């Protein structure tokens, strides 16, 4: 069944009750993701300055320039080459939507760390190997990375990550921080 629809009843329940239950189920299934079609349509309309229903290379360049983004002509050409499925030199909304979804999925994959990578990073920071990161271990790691952080800044980082309030960051807390950071 699609979003918002309802099935015919079997006759064993009153129709209104069945419809309400099914509508509740449909509503849960049909919650729009962050990358909703409305968001994509809004972006498309923002780029399609002449309301032609198509996005051209020049429109993309202008919007990127207006946003202060520095994207090479080569990268824009690659984008158009991959998005313009019918090779007409412009991108329709459907082509734009498909390219948007693909780019979003690729960006999400690139930003994710594997479990092995997160565990390796945690172990590298856990100097004494006790399974948790202390303020001193975090501070040392930051200093080794040629970054200066005051004791207050390190305390703040630990406090934000330390869900069980034991003054240390265990592996589970460390993973939550990494996943949160990669989604922002």
Automatic annotation (TrEMBL):
Gene field: LOC100367481
Organism ancestry: Eukaryota, Metazoa, Hemichordata, Enteropneusta, Harrimaniidae
Pfam families: EF-hand_7
PANTHER family recorded: CALCIUM BINDING PROTEIN
All copies of domain EF-hand, residue ranges: 35-70, 71-106, 113-148, 149-184
Protein name: Calmodulin-like
Composition-biased stretches (Polar residues): 7-19
Keyword ATP-binding: no
Family matches, as SUPFAM superfamilies: EF-hand
Keywords: Calcium, Repeat
InterPro entries, per the entry: Centrin_CML-like, EF-hand-dom_pair, EF_Hand_1_Ca_BS, EF_hand_dom
Disordered, as annotated region: 1-36
